[in-house]
Amino acid sequence: MILVDADACPVKQEAIRVALRHAMPIVFVANQGLRLPDHPLVRMFVVGDGFDAADDAIAEAAGPRSLVITADILLAERCLKAGAQVMDPKGAAFTKDGIGGQIATRAIMADLRAGLDGQGIGGAKPFTKADRSRFLDVLETAVRRLPRGA
Q: Architecture of domain 2-96+128-145 in CATH?
C-alpha cells in the first residue's frame, strides 16, 4: 500500500498513476478532503484538525508492506521505525542510516531561521520538472520492491 501525506504533496497524480499501473492501493491522508479519481484502489482518509493528526494516522498505518510519501522528516523517521519504505515528493529516499543526520540538519536550520528572523535563509527549493521526473523513477523502483500479499 502507498500512503501519501497529502496536504501539500505536489505529486498526487503521479503517485496515483504508478499505483494503478501496479494495481496497488493508495491512501491519501489529509486534514481536508481532496478531489481524487473514483477508483477502488484510490482512497481518501480525512483526519481531524488536531496537531499532527495526519502524521499520527500515517505512522499508525505504516509497516513493512507500505511505502510512505512525505516531506516531513519526523514522520519519515516514525514510518521507517515501523518498517515502511519512505520517500519524499522530490524522489529522495529516507533511510534508517540517514534519517538521524537529516533530523539534526532540520533542527540546525530551524534554529538558524529563528535566530536570524528568517533573514537570508529561505525554505525549501521550488519544485521542478526534474524533481517530478526523479520522483516517478524512484517511486517505480520502490513499488516494485514492496512485498505483496497478506
A: 3-Layer(aba) Sandwich (3.40)
